Amino acid sequence: MSRIRCIAIDDEPLALEVIQKFASKIPSLDLLGCFQNPLEALEFIQQEPVNLIFLDVQMPDLSGLQLKQHLPEDLSVIFTTAYSEYAIESYNLNAVDYLLKPILFDRFLKAVQKAQKLLQVEMQEKPPTYLFIKSDTRYFKVNYDDILYIEGMRDYIAVHTPYKKILTLMSMTKILEKLPSASFMRVHKSFIINLNHISLVQNNRVLIQEREIPISNTYKENFIKFVEASGI
Q1: What is the tens place of the pLDDT at every residue in 37-70?
Q2: What is the rounded distance in angstroms from the CA atom of residue 62 to the CA atom of residue 95?
Q3: Domains of the chain and any CATH numbers
Q4: Do 40 and 8 form a contact (C-beta atoms < 8 A)?
Q5: Most buried among 98, 122, 182, 224, by the most CB within 10 A?
Q6: Is the pTM of this model over 0.90?
């Protein structure tokens, strides 16, 4: 499994320093940032791919327990607090673990290992239905089903969805390797299409929404085989 991308949220700077120190000792952890303001952390999560959060329970304005209910369901959380009475409530929110302050490194390591095992199981049982696409300094989470087609533009590619176009520095070959082969096919040196979004095939062209996409001779044979196998 690749490194766990995580963040820490706590209104106490010293508590964040402890987590930062412990995380630096564990090679499988990639601590992306520490936040005292939970709303800033929430904004960060919407922009960057994150697997795990170390989340303080007691914070002003918005508690960790309240924040957990605004997070994606597939985002793992390890609660941290000085008060043991919150343990039951944290487990009711499907937290991975619950760390009592002052946190010892041995206990921190066990919680991380538990999170890692759970993430590995989730990846095996539920293959991803999305990918993160980097554009400039941001990562966009894009569902495979939302990709209409991908257009090659020299050093860049443009990923077209119904609601936006995302430019990223990547080759057509590389992006095709990351996409499920059952749904995506290259039909031209400059185009990869989502087969589920084809509305018409005519005269060496496919229509996806309002866009006509050419089928080149290089890729025509494989595409025709797909059409014939899917036809009646």
Answers
A1: 999 999 898 888 899 999 999 888 888 889 998 8
A2: 17
A3: 4-125 (3.40.50.2300), 130-230 (2.40.50.1020)
A4: no
A5: 98
A6: no
